[in-house]
Fold:
Amino acid sequence: MYDQPNGFYGSVPIVAGTVPLAVGAAMAAKMQKTNDIGVAYLGDGAAEEGVVHESFNLAKVQKAPVLFVIENNLFASHMHISLRQPSDMVSRFAKANEIPYKLVDGNDVIAVAKASKELIDNMRSRSGPALIELVTYRWYGHVDWRDDVDVGVDRSLDDITNWKARDPIARLSQAMIDSGMWSLEQEEIIGLELDKKIQDAWKQAMDDPYPSLEATARYVYS
Ligand SMILES: Cc1ncc(C[n+]2csc(CCOP(=O)(O)OP(=O)(O)O)c2C)c(N)n1
Ligand SMILES: [Mg+2]
Structure:
């Protein structure tokens, strides 16, 4: 997927493949003297790809205004980070490249917003990359909606239960209710609206006919 007018330079199935694209976007913004920045979202598994380290290095030496957002959910496919890396802290690679970074509770929406804003404000004033590591947890298997599905995932039910208690959406909602910005009734209404949207989309997907044979090649060749 790609949406240039909205500044979305692509999502691809190749893990880490979009990280250098974000550095390129940041370089373009810098050369064109816009106030834009590049943002790359990647996982703890993606941080094991060579191109990510080349991207960190290039962004640093070129002072590219790019924010690397690492969603460290402790798993890559079905393997826990302890089986793959000598440390569970991915932001150590920022240190290695002398890139300013923050390590944040990734299940705390407000903390993530505050830390990101600080890094981005600094980035805009002095240029150059920054990195934010969001510590979170993969609830589900790699390719399914159940949490016990991936062969090889060896984790305790306690872990999943404890992490589910830190659900970022529930925590944000509770914080908003506590501060009087939001109510349980409003949450219920939104929940019902979303349920209906999902049910309608599901029904349409199940009821619509399959695409025609010609449609498969449309937009593939020009
Ligand atoms: C270059 C490449 N190698 C392997 C894969 C298969 N693969 C898909 S997702 C994934 C794990 C990614 O883990 P992480 O970056 O931590 O992302 P998460 O799914 O945990 O958010 C792998 C190995 C791939 N898509 N691309
Ligand atoms: Mg991961």
About this structure: The CA atoms of residues 7 and 85 lie 33 Å apart. The chain has seven helices and six strands. The mean pLDDT is 93. The pocket of magnesium ion (ligand 2) is lined by residues 43-45, 73, 75-76, 138 (CB under 6 Å).
